[in-house]
Amino acid sequence: MEDLKHNSKLSGSTERRATPLLTAKDVAAELSVSEAWVRDHATGRRLPALPVVRLGGRKAVLRFRREDLDRFLQFHSRNSNTGGL
């Protein structure tokens, strides 16, 4: 019975994450940049900082949330209706 309670807690947290995490390769393809660009911006070597989920220590696996990437793009996009050039 204790196992069932534990599993229900795990499945509840999994349900909240409706979309899978993206890899650096996924993000690079979507942004039309290199994987090195993604890693540099995710690790803070370059700005703007790209939101990242780090899994592990120094040699962490980098993963990205869809909603963080969408927010990043929205924040760093220029509105074409502002009367610019």
Strand content: 5-15%
Q: Which residues form runs of ≥5 with pLDDT under 50?
A: none
CATH class of the domain at 18-75: Mainly Alpha
Side by side, the strands of the main sheet go 1-2
The name of the CATH architecture of the domain at 18-75 is Orthogonal Bundle
Q: Helical stretch count?
A: 4
How far apart are the termini?
Answer: 66 Å
Structural class determined from secondary elements: mainly alpha
**Largest pleated sheet:** 2 strands, antiparallel
- CATH fold-type name of the domain at 18-75: Multidrug-efflux Transporter Regulator, Chain: A, Domain 2
Total strands: the figure is: 2
- List SSEs in N-to-C order: HHHEEH
The whole-angstrom Rg is: 17 Å
Q: What would the principal axes of the Cα set say about the shape?
A: globular
Mean pLDDT rating: 82
Helix content: 40-55%
3D structure, described in words:
This protein has about 80 residues and is mainly α. It has a domain at about 20-75: Multidrug-efflux Transporter Regulator, Chain: A, Domain 2 (Orthogonal Bundle), CATH 1.10.1660. About 50% of the residues lie in helices and about 5% in strands. The chain has helices spanning about 1-15, 25-30, 35-40, 65-75, and strands spanning about 55, 60-65. Helix 2 (about 25-30) crosses helix 3 (about 35-40). The model has no long low-confidence stretch (mean pLDDT about 80).
